[in-house]
Amino acid sequence: MMRLRTALAVLFCVLAAPAYAVQPDEVLSDPALEDRARDISQELRCLVCRNENIDESNAGLARDLRLLVRERLVEGDTNDEVVDFVVDRYGEYVLLRPQTDGANLILWLAGPVLLICALALAVSYQRRHRSARTDESPLDADEAKRLEEILKD
């Protein structure tokens, strides 16, 4: 009996569809527009929940954004126009995948450039210290004798 319950629980967990926060009163009657709204909602960040898209967020602001997206689509905007409208209104932070042009290009390139600089510094540091160690001259006879005396004690 316990195995059957466990098997059913696992089955329900595997077959469970992802739960979206979109309420039934938000869904558009036109399936094509609704699909477009869902696609756009997947790309927009909930400003309250941070790294959650507005399609999955239960926050009030996410609901407002979902309604705004659907309203713009019903008015005849393209997907890009809707995204541009939301970005103009809320800033580029609302995009889950930030743009890679303009001032953002500096941010995208800063990490790899700094990594390359750090690796170059590390290599030059290692070379300097390695060459300093190889420049050491071997011990002369007096120094070797003194070292043996110290090690014996």
Automatic annotation (TrEMBL):
GO cellular component annotations of the record: plasma membrane
GO molecular function, one term: metal ion binding
Pfam families for this protein: CcmH (PF03918)
Span of domain CcmH/CycL/Ccl2/NrfF N-terminal: 10-151
TM regions (residue ranges): 105-125
Signal peptide: 1-21
Keywords: Heme, Iron, Membrane, Metal-binding, Signal, Transmembrane, Transmembrane helix
Domain of life according to the entry: Bacteria
Family annotation (CDD domains): CcmH_N (cd16378)
PANTHER family hit by this protein: CYTOCHROME C-TYPE BIOGENESIS PROTEIN CCMH, CYTOCHROME C-TYPE BIOGENESIS PROTEIN CYCH
Cited function: Possible subunit of a heme lyase.
Protein family: Belongs to the CcmH/CycL/Ccl2/NrfF family.
Listed name of the protein: Cytochrome c-type biogenesis protein
Native species: Qingshengfaniella alkalisoli
